Amino acid sequence: MTTCNSITLERSTNGQRKNFLEMAEENVCASCSAPCCRVLLVPHPTPATFMDLDYIRYVVGFHGAQMILNSDGRWQLLIEQACRLLDQETNLCTVHATPRQPKTCVFFNPYRCWYKRNFDKREKPPELIRIDMDRLEAILPHVRFDEDGNVLDIPKWEVIREL
User: Fold this and answer.
1) Which pick of 28, 29, 30, 40 has the fewest CB atoms within 10 Å?
2) How far is CA 9 from CA 2, 13, 25, 26, in A?
3) Across 26-53, average pLDDT
4) Taking 80 as the threshold, does the pLDDT of residue 47 lie above it?
């Protein structure tokens, strides 16, 4: 028990609710498989032409490369390759809390971890669709173009998810 300005703070023992001190002491990354350090996501423009989709078909032909379609319509290139700074046995960063740690990692908020929600589960991720060669080949017949090769119609996110 700790007293702070005449307020008594007690630590919970039920494991479900935590007070501020317990949250501050907790390392939320300790039990994580480090998906943020195992995939590289690169923003990619939304395909607007036949050639854009053809380029995506070219990209997903490479081993370890997929496209990601987020539920908000953003496209990203996903490369499954672990960061060189990650100790893959412990899932810990080898340069954590040193000047070599990238600022992207320093300022990352683990309490709102998009990677863990979308890459650390066996079920379908809630916010994204992984598009590999097979899935892209299932999507392409549903895309319609005008005579100049501009995309006129592409299936909605929910339809692509089912394909």
Assistant:
1) 30
2) 5, 13, 15, 17
3) 91
4) yes
State both tokens at 145: 């173009």
Nearest to 64 by CA among 42, 39, 98: 39
Q: Which of 92, 84, 97 is nearest to 33 (CA)?
A: 92
pTM: predicted TM-score of the whole model, two decimal places: 0.74
Do 119 and 128 touch, CB atoms closer than 8 A? no
32-52 burial code (b ≥16 CB/10 A, e <16): bebbbbbbbbeebeebeebeb
Residue 101 amino acid letter: Q
Which residue would you say has higher pLDDT here, 118 or 24? 118
